[in-house]
Amino acid sequence: MGRINLKDKYIPNNNNGTYANPCISxxxxxxxxxxxxxxxxxxxxxxxxxxxxxxxxxxxxxxxxDPGFETFCANGQHYNDEGVLEDDNTELTVYPLGIQxxxxxxxxx
Length: 109
Known about the structure:
6% of the residues lie in helices and 23% in strands. The chain is mainly beta.
């Protein structure tokens, strides 16, 4: 899980701290919690022609109530990459929810 430091970003006074700020809306994108998402991949050949969408899976994201998947932590605590709650000097840590796939393209030959 990567961490984004917004302290060094320019935050205009008219939308400070909200998703109206492009630094925040870009840096803190998230899937909705406890929702079902369908994922697929489209492949392209050397001529730029696309394949049909190849279904990967239907994946339900964790609920906000599942331990380790909270939206944020306050009071100087955060979850590290192993899911353990640690103390630090931050006032607020936000946990955007995302997904990452690794694809072996050799299996599509």
